[in-house]
Amino acid sequence: MNTVGNKFPEGFLWGGATAANQMEGGFHEGNKGLNIADVLPGGKERLSILQEPGFNFEIDKSKYSYPNHEGIDFYHRYKEDIALFAEMGFKAFRMSIAWTRIFPNGDELEPNEAGLAFYDRVFDELHKYGIEPVVTISHYEMPVNLVKEYGGWRNRQVVTFFERYVNAIFNSYKNKVKYWMTFNEINSGLVMPIMGLGFSIHKEEDRYQPTFQAFHHQFVASSIAVKACHEIIPDSKIGCMVIFAPVYAFDSNPENVMFALQEERLFNNFCADVQVRGEYPAFIKRYFKEHGIELETQDGDLELLKENPVDYIGFSYYMSRTEKKVKTELEASQGNIIGGVKNPFLKASDWGWEIDPEGLRISLNKLHDRYQVPLFVVENGLGAYDNVEEDGSINDDYRIDYLREHIKAMGEAIEDGVELMGYTSWGCIDLVSASTGEFSKRYGFIYVDKHDDGSGTLERKRKKSFYWYQNVIGTNGEQL
Question: What positions carry a catalytic annotation?
Answer without folding.
Answer: 185, 379
